Amino acid sequence: MGVVVHPSPQPMTWGYLHNFALDCIRFSIANFRFDCLTIVDSDQISLRSGYCAHLGHALAQWPSAGVLGAVSGPHGRRNAPPPAQRIWDEYELWKPFLSRGPGGEEGSIHSLFWPSTVFTERAARDLCDLWDREPALRAALGRTKAWATEEVVLPTLVAMMGYEVRPSPCSFDYVKFRKAFTAHDLDQALARPDAFWMHPVPRQMGHPLRIALRERTQNYRRSVPMRPDQSHDLATFGNPPLLLVSDILRIMHGIPGWLRDEEADLLIAVLSRIVLGRPGPHTIVEVGSHRGRATVVLANVLRQLAPDSRLYAIDPHDGLVGAAYQQLYSTGPTLASFQQNIENAGVADIITPIVSKTGDLGWEKPVEFLLIDGLHDYASVASDFRSFERWLVPGACIAFHDYAPSFPGVLRFVDELLRQPRYRPVTLRGSMMLVQCLSPQT
User: Fold this and answer.
1) What's the mean pLDDT in 272-291?
2) Whether residues 397 and 281 fall in one domain
3) Which of 87, 183, 195, 324 is the right S-S partner for 377, CB 3.0 to 4.6 Å?
4) 130: domain range?
5) Which pLDDT score is estimated for 222?
6) How far is the C-alpha of 133 from the C-alpha of 324, rounded, in Å?
7) Residue 349 gets which letter from DSSP?
8) Is 442 a domain residue?
9) Is there a single domain that holds both residue 252 and residue 317?
10) Is residue 130, in this structure, part of any structural domain at all?
């Protein structure tokens, strides 16, 4: 399974795991090439793929980062939590080190929660070098009465060396201390594209949470469906080739997002009807790509049925989702993960990403299918739709995602649109409302 076991394990004491961290770092430096190292406890589970790309995108923007995690600090004498306060209580022991940091003594002490902590490669090397050349540091850790040394001493040393101690770009809402998570918590975590870990989850294969996660991820299966040009049996079966919805859904399931199977099925059905019923090439527009979950669904239809067509994927990729003034939150920048996901799906050559808000575009192409899935407040939905309305050809279809009571702005705009004789409702699947444009705008 690709697991590498440390050849010289040593007994460790809970609360004094700095030696464990140093052992892992030294072993990694000696045996691997890496950009960063993540601490994963044995009662911690991975929720989804894409962690490395998500982390790498953040680190590319933070060249001075040394430690990422659920960090806090710096802790002065008056505001230190118990583990950090113990360092202040032993001031004479730690004084030679506290004054070295760029912020002086009061800006030196940092702390974090150990599971999911990330050390960058540069900081990890410098940490080992510091340990090796400073006998006074080793002596201090041998005498200290402080506990959770890995959570206080290590980030403090990294900060002392001039590195940034930064909050992780990944959510820590599901990485806690002695919390009993539920299946509902798991579902909420899986709906969060920035949630990659859950801790603690008991170390039992038969634990309900582990069973539930295996079921939701199809036992962690990661498949790459054959494309028509790779499959001789389908390629010779006829033209156009068979469009297998299950293959497209498997690709979709590997990408974070909120598009459900029945909604993706509707997108596949309507886009298939459009490209097979009209001469190409076709122009398809998606507003609100996020990490590409719906994008790869649409692009795979084009790949198989109309490869000379183009999908324009429009998103500012600022990571803002929800509805302005109502329930807006940020998942962090999404462009890097979007690009990686469409590349992995083998459809990047069919897609033209446009990093922009629709109001900033000067669009001038006829549109046959339009997916509106940006911000879900009334003003944003209206702006996204109006940016393309005059370019909708007669018979074009518009799909509005999240047409549901939880997003009243979407409901209101679509209901107002359907009062116009130019538009008619086609069907609703899940929260995906399909509308058809009957005539050109006058």
Assistant:
1) 92
2) yes
3) 324
4) 1-222
5) 59
6) 54
7) G
8) no
9) yes
10) yes
